[in-house]
Structure formats: structure tokens, C-alpha cells
Amino acid sequence: MDDTQSNSAFSNFINNKILPPVMKFVNTKPVKALQDGMVYALPFIIIGSVFLILSNVPIPAVAAAMKASGWSAFFNQAYTATFGIMALWASIGIAYVYVRNEGYEALPAGLTSMAAFLILQSLNIANPLVAAMGKAGTGITNAAGSTVMSGAAVQANIDKLPHALQGFLTAPVTGVINITWLGGQGMIAAIICGILVGWAYSAMIRKGWKITLPEQVPSSVANQFTAMIPAGVILIVSLLIYAAFSAFGNTDVLQLIYKLLQTPLQGLSDSFGGAIIIAFLVPFFWFFGVHGGLIMGGITSGILIPNTFDNAALYKAGKLTIGQGAHVVTNEFYNNFINLTGSGITLGLVVFTLVAAHSVQFKTIGKIELVPALFNINEPFLFGLPIVMNPFLAIPFFLTPVIVAASTYLVIRFGIVPPLNGFAAPWTTPAIISGFLIGGWKMAIWQTITLLMSVGIYFPFAKKYDAVLTKQEHDKEVAEAAGNAEAAK
Amino acid sequence: MTKKIIMLACAGGMSTSLLVTKMKAAAKANNEDYQIFATGAAEIHDRLTGEACPDVLLLGPQIRYIADKAQVIADEAGIPMAVINMHDYGTMNGVNVLNTAKQLLEK
């Protein structure tokens, strides 16, 4: 048949020309380290986001009671030390995985990366008075949020003070770690730091740059010295970078990376086009039988998790609206919309098997898929139905995530449902429950609507495919019966 | 004879764990005793270089793109490795996949 021929020519092209370079990229040491290293940050992000919700329960009466009892502040403390410093976890995890994959003792490398990440940033915080001063300053506000002294008035009062006192009041706060850079804003810098440290550390160990002690020294003692030279070199280089930025630019490398790299990347991922591309590429890879969710998740999480983080910070401050800078496309947009009920949002097929399937194949696989679908796993469909390389189901498989992503983007963008609140629901959280957690009851309803879209889009295609399968099964039965009759003769 | 260990790996070890249940049932029906478990691809290296190294490694077809790398690790560990047939994987055919593992073990 011409049709299948052109199909196979096209898929040959993809399999031989497009996939190998992509796979090569996905398999490079830095990408693998990023993908697997972020996994170490995830438990802290998920647990931390539970504390975030607890400290700001979306029911006003409960929230007020929590605040009055002092528990909000305690939950906030736990959030800050987990989700709040996620870039730190990432910098450790990525260097750790990189070096572990090279087959060396990896924890010293992870810790070296953490030290380098801290060396690279200014360990002080701008004095809050400075931000409040001047005509454009924020002024001083009271707990209720109304301004009690304008920026210009603050400035005028400070100017009346003796010079030494002025300097003292406006000097940066020192002796602290600025957790702004350990959270979302430092994420891309942490990823780069983790990869470079992992690479440099492994290279030095491989080259034999280590202190080798005589054999009589117990190995546990000797191991401590292995890390000394690579760690020392990396930390000295970090120090020099910090010194150069501080002396020549009066800034640090983290601020530069945030401005030049992270902000544009976050903007790109958080656009209508970005949402569509991500939604399209997941089924694209899956169609050729490789794990699109894993590949795209690995590449995008470094950007989408900071988006989640920004929304969490806004939620915490009670300012979670698009107007105040909330992102539409966060990591949960990816996990709990684009990949809901499995890559390709295949719930429509589950419903089809329940109410309308005739062929044995559809019914059997549907039965296997029923429970996994609740937890957003759909490998039985992908390989068993199959969806992989199956032209009958290609159109809805590509279309559903794109339409769901586009419409979800629009309803959040135009304020029909509120932005995602920064709660990091694990990707295996069942549909509707996850919607409620990541955005409240309106999001749960919207998630239900996206599932109905899936049903609507898959249904006609599934029906056609089911008819083909039924015919095949029938033909086979007839042929077998004929064969049996032949044999009986 | 010690129990043979069969290790399956997919992205996160989630969907392969479904298959493990089916394979265990298939083994039980034959009165055979294997230790079968599923894990994420990231753990292949640790498992194969650690204690209780499995006797055979099977990859889910969705991560066949790491097959070359996994093959190197498996060769170093001296154990056979294969990518699970897509159809067997999708239909969660425990009997067939167990047979694949057995064939690899006999080699």
C-alpha cells in the first residue's frame, strides 16, 4: 500500500536522521546529570510546597487562625529551608550525579559544587532602607500594606542624620547568606555550577590529580585526601571568578546569569508558543517509541521549576495574579496538564474502551490501562494498543496535548481560572485531585474539562481503529476456521 | 542454586513494576523462583556495580535510547541485557518477557 510506504519512509527519516542527534544530546553527560540531579531536589520541593500551602491555607478563616496561632510562621520556616533553597539542592545533586556516572566517589564533588555555588554569590543582602529611599523608593509600609512614609520622606529624614549614621543605616547586611539566590532566581546558575564542577572534578580525578598516600594508610583516611586537589582547584577558580565580578563589575556572576540567561528562558517557556512546543514534543518523541515525557521533562524542568517557584513566592505574598507577574506555564502545567493521565492525555481512549470498544485488543489493553491511567501512566496504551507508530491514532495523540495546553494557557492568561499556586504535586497524582491541589476548585473543574476534550478528540479516531481491529480479528477467525476445516478433511 | 535476579528498568520504574507483577505471576504458575524487580534508569549503574548484582537486565522500550550505554555497563558487570519487545511490554505479557529473560540467562 502506498500509504504505509510513505509512512515508513517518513518514519525511517525520523528514526535515522532526527532521533539519533536528539538522543545523542539527551544522552550527553551534562543533560543526564541535569535530569537525574534534579531528582535529588524534588523531595524537598514537594515537601516544601506542602508547608507552603499549610502556611497560607486558601480558606481565609483557616489562614487567619493559623497566623494568629503562630503556626504560619513555623510552616514558613520549613518551606524556606526546603523548597526555598532548591537551587542549592540542584547544585549538589547535579555535580553528584555527573561524578557518580563517571564512576568516582561522588559526594565530595556534590559538596564542592555547593561550596563553589556559595563562593560565587555575594554573601550580603541590600539594606531594606535603600529600597525604601528616594522618590522612586517603596517608602515604609505598615503591616496592613498602606504607606506610612513615602520614599522621598524617608530620604529626607535620613539626609538629616550625621554622615556616619547614614552610612551605617544604608550599608548592606553582612554575615548572611542571601537565600534569594538559593531559591528560584539562582536555579540556572546552580545548574551551570553543578555541571561545570562535575565535569572539572571528574576530569581532574581521571588525570590523576590527587594526593596518593602510601598503601599502609587506611583507605577511609586516604579517600578524604582524594578530593583535596580537585576541590581546591575548583574553589580557587570560583574565588577568582567572584573576585573578578566584584572588583570590575560590582556585581556577581549569579546576578549576571539571572539577567542574561534565566529571565529570557523563563519568559520563553512561559509563552503561548513555548507551551505549544513543549506540549507537541512530548507525543512527538513518544510516537517514535521513546519516552517523550522524560526527555522533555529533563530539558524543561530547569526552567519550569523556577516558574513554579516564582508563583509559590507570589502565592505566599498573597499576590498570585498574572498582573503581578505570575507565570502561566509552570512545572505543574507540564506534569498535571500536558501529561495528565499519561503522555498524550489518553483518558479519551480509556473511556472509549469502557463504553464503545468491540475488538478484543482494545478491550484487553483497556482493562490493563484502567488503573495506571489514574496515576498518569499509560505505557500499556503506548506500546500495547499501540499508539507508537500507529497512524490511526497519531492525530488525536498529537492534537490533544496541544489543544489542552493552548486552552489552559488562555484560560489562565485571561483570568478565567487563577494561576497555578506553586504547589508541586508529584506527576503521579490522580487527575482532578492534582488540579485541586495546584490551583483550587476552579482548576479541578478546568482539569475535568480538559479530560472531556480528550474524550471528544480521541473518540472518532478510536472508533475507526477499533473497527479495523475488529475486522482483522474477524478475518483471522475466519481464516483459522477455514484452516481447521481444511485440516479436518 | 541461588535464586536468579531479573532486573527491569524504565524511566522511573513505575510502569515496569506493573510488568514485574505479571512476570512474578507467570513464574509462580511454572513453579519457578526468581527475584524480579523494577527500577529507574538512573539506578542501572549503581545496581550493576553494587552488591547483589542482577543476573539479567531488561530495558523498557521507551528508554531504548540508552541501550548502548546500558550495554556497556552490563558488559562490564558480565550480565546479558535486552530491550523488551514493544508489544509484549504494552500488553504486559509476563509470560513472554519472563521467557526472554530465561533465554538470556541460558546463554
Account of the protein in words:
The complex is a heterodimer of chains A (489) and B (107). Chain A has 489 residues and is mainly α. Chain A has 2 domains: 2-254, no CATH class; 270-488, no CATH class. Chain A contains 22 helices and 4 strands. The longest helix of chain A has 56 residues, at 433-488. Chain A is globular, with a radius of gyration of 28 Å. The two termini of chain A are 35 Å apart. The model of chain A is unreliable at 1-6 (pLDDT under 50). Chain B has 107 residues and is an alpha/beta fold. Chain B has a domain at 38-107: Response regulator (Rossmann fold). Helix content of chain B is 48%, strand content 20%. Chain B has 5 helices and 4 strands. Chain B has helices at residues 14-29, 44-49, 67-77, 86-90, 94-106, and strands spanning 4-10, 34-40, 56-59, 81-83. In chain B, helix 1 (14-29) links the parallel strand 1 and strand 2 (34-40). In chain B, helix 1 (14-29) crosses helix 5. The longest helix of chain B has 16 residues, at 14-29. Chains A and B meet through helix 1, helix 6, helix 19 and helix 20 of A and helix 1, helix 2 and helix 4 of B.
